[in-house]
Amino acid sequence: MQTRKQFITSASMLGAVTLLFPSLLSDTSKKVKNIGVQLYTFRTEMAADARGTLKKIADLGYKQIESARSNKGHYYGLTPKEMKQACKDLGMTLSSGHVHIDDKWKQTMDEAAESGQKYIICSTIPTNGQTVNNYKKVAESFNKAGEACKKLGIKFGYHNHEYEFENDGTQVLYDVLLNNTQADLVHMELDLGWVIVAGKNPLDYFNKFPGRFPLWHLKDMDLAKKHSVEFGKGQLNILAMLKNKQQSGLDIMFVEQEEYASTPFESMKENMEYMKKLRM
């Protein structure tokens, strides 16, 4: 029979092993959980049948929803409250939405507040000009937008593409944006796929601007064709990204795919199966 002293000694040794060699433990908590999806992936399907498409997305196992602007509005013909409830009924959360800063900006913010979503993400640079001065002006407008959203209980953010990583002289324009926005007002959604297409490494940004990227678009990319592919078929090291999520400040990741081998449902099923096999 094991004595109390032996038990305490064994438990202490196990704790030490856990700290030094966590990979030795087959802990199911190391699975990637609570994965989200950007609805632009299902843009045609959402426009045709929003509720039916959301049901199919839920059946694939996705838990967080990020909406996208469409010709039926930000919620595909549903009201903000209807969209929130439709997701809730399916065991999902409407967490974020892609929008534009335009003449309907106040309405956009009010709708986001009504929907209960946590984030509202500007998906394009609102003014033209790939210059440092323009990006400083944009940063100022983003700070103001962030302040307005904060008053409504929403977090404002920006989603990058490839062009933000162009240089104006010696400065990378995306860095100008980061350096001139307030971290508590402007929350960056880093599209990992477009970062690597631009020839940059997301890990460098996690290290240079720790905690600035609470949202991700997790997107594998074919660098030669510059389009998205199913996980494991492109050049993004997904596991390396996930192992550095704490440095990023990650809150929610949204899987997005813009091109598909067959259908968006088949591609997103394949992506979910890929994610289920990963261990942190």
Q: Explain this structure to me?
A:
The strands form three sheets. Strands 1-2-3-4-5-8-9-12 form an eight-stranded parallel barrel. The protein has helices at residues 4-20, 43-48, 50-60, 80-89, 105-115, 132-151, 173-179, 192-197, 202-208, 238-243, 245-248, 264-277; strands spanning 36-38, 64-67, 93-99, 119-122, 155-159, 167-168, 171-172, 187-191, 215-218, 220-222, 227-229, 252-255. It is globular. It has one domain (30-277): Divalent-metal-dependent TIM barrel enzymes (TIM Barrel, Alpha-Beta Barrel), CATH 3.20.20. Mean pLDDT is 91; it is low at 1-28. Strand 4 (119-122), helix 6 (132-151) and strand 5 form a beta-alpha-beta unit. Helices cover 42% and strands 16% of the residues. The chain contains twelve helices and twelve strands. It is of the alpha/beta class.
